[in-house]
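--- STAGE predict ---
source: upstream dedup step, 1 unique chain passed
mode: sequence only
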Amino acid sequence: MPPESWIEHRRPGDRERLGWIRPEADGFVAHDALGREVTDTVDWLAAEEALEERGLHWLSDLYQLDLPDGTRERVRIVEVTPERVVVKVDDFGAVDVVTASFVLPFPAPDSLRPFEGDARTFDGGLLPG
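--- STAGE serialize ---
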């Protein structure tokens, strides 16, 4: 859950939540929908612009999740709320495949990060931890 001092920022028009803006010293820091910092300390307008420029399209990208046993999974984000982030093992677009899901805390932990492998291959070229 974001701290009470974080100010929710929604996209003009459709009011979709893009992230939060956190007061910091003499300025503000923008945080994306996963709760991760997008800017250094900037003025309010720059924080808003950074979130609006970033948008939400990046949520549909591939990610990798480092698991406690040292393995990595190729995952997609399926839910982001101020309480949790849910990812599932990538099903490669197959609607009839059930894959494992992982419920992560908010803000998303460092173990969830953009996919580093080759997205065009089945195994993605990911190596263990």
